[in-house]
Write a structure and sequence with these properties.
The protein has six helices and no strands. By secondary structure, it is mostly helical. Helix 1 (2-29) crosses helix 2, helix 2 packs across helix 3 (65-85) and helix 4 packs across helix 5 (132-150). It comes from Pandoraea thiooxydans.
Length: 185
């Protein structure tokens, strides 16, 4: 039972932290204004890891490489801790663990987008004038805009968040299936 609790806590903490690092990188790609409370919170949580890496890995063409590398390192540490929590040998992860960490990072990014889209859709029904709505809209619009071109509103209802949610679910299934086929996971 203790091992199960440890795995749950490791999974939750590292997934959330990895998602916040990916969110930081995404916010810089889309040039989100840094003054909003969400941006400030993301920077406060991640500065301790990203700022030292930024000395080595500066941003290039709007991509925050320090945040992406920090997220990748977080995924590597996550894998090592998960293998250790089940009594495995973390050293046996390498070199295949490097690819598994990359797949973990993609899974975190897809889950982050799914949760942001879901939160935006719920907030648009419950409280469309919430201060969080412009931030959520700013984060999700680059993904929703191409879908909106293909799927216009039906009866005044924007179905693009639902379509994006379904696309993400299919991608997560393919990712899980690909990981299973490649690694026997």
């Amino acid at each position: 039972m203790f091992g199960e609790i440890a795995r749950f806590l490791i999974d939750t903490i590292f997934t959330l932290f990895g998602a916040v690092l990916l969110l930081r990188a995404w916010m810089q790609v889309i040039r989100m204004p840094p003054g909003n409370p969400i941006s400030r919170g993301v920077f406060q949580v991640t500065d301790w890891l990203v700022l030292p890496l930024r000395r080595i890995l500066p941003g290039y063409r709007g991509i925050d490489w320090a945040s992406l590398v920090a997220a990748y390192l977080t995924a590597l540490v996550f894998l090592v801790l998960m293998v250790a929590a089940v009594g495995g040998q973390p050293a046996l992860l390498f070199p295949l663990g490097l690819l598994i960490a990359l797949l973990t990072l993609v899974k975190w990014a897809l889950n982050l987008l799914m949760w942001l889209t879901l939160l935006m859709a719920v907030m648009s029904w419950v409280n469309p004038h919430s201060p969080a709505m412009p931030v959520l809209d700013y984060l999700t619009t680059p993904f929703l805009r191409p879908i909106r071109r293909v799927l216009p509103p039906i009866g005044g209802a924007d179905l693009s968040p639902l379509a994006l949610f379904l696309i993400i679910q299919v991608l997560l299934m393919l990712l899980a299936r690909g990981g299973f086929l490649l690694f026997g996971m």
